[in-house]
Amino acid sequence: MTLKTIADLFFIGSTILYIISMISYIFYLFMQKHTIEQKAFALISFGFIFHVLSICLGVLKTGSLPVHNLSESLSITGLALAGVFIGFKYKFNLKILGIFVSPLIVIIMIAAFSLPKTLLAEVSILKGFWLILHIFLIFTGEAALGLACGIGILYLLQEKAIKNKKRGFFYKRLPSLDFLDSSGYSCIIIGFTLLTAGLITGLIYAKLIWGQFWSWDPKEIWSALTWFLYAALLHGRLTTGWQGKKSAIIAILGFIVIIFTFLGVNFLIGGHHQVFTK
Known about the structure:
- It contains 8 helices and no strands.
- The chain is mainly alpha-helical.
- The chain has 2 domains: 1-127; 128-278, no CATH class.
């Protein structure tokens, strides 16, 4: 078998594991059995390992980072989201977050599988230390901010359950508001730090490839807007007490902006990065 075939098999295997993990997390949501959550987490962890092997084989095949098209870019996105979730699960033991993360990963992986795999981007611009570092930092940072969005959604659900005073479905299954707020804040701090470093390395890479640090490319502009949004959120938390519901809402809005920056800008506006999402 060729490297491409083996890589595709690992990719399909990881997708199947992610799907079974998602189903297991849905069962866990209703049944609240610890053993089910353990199996769901193990499945997403093995899916991550298979996914890493698929990406590594892709690198060996092409000799460059596998972000030649939208399919490969989405695959890297799914990998980053799974990896960051595993790390935060060990850190905060926020079991219920898998209900948000696993379906999102499955949607991303199915989209990546369905899209064309033609190598459209120029391989020559996909090599080099600064690009690899830029991609790693950006995708990992945005994955952490994606988790913050998920926690923000859980926060709003729990707050609504508490205000209704019915102690219904979500109240019994979600952690306290303080825990959700603090863990979401940690996701934002880590995500924002990585995003900042990723943007800096991106500027350096742009200088090396296009001859200038900043060219008012649409992706650059929207990336800067995303950075300022999260910077405002962190500043607000430190100075004016933007915690709880307000922080959750901004975290959700911030991730929507990230999604538009990743997909909408390339399809609707264009720019340098459009070559990676054709």
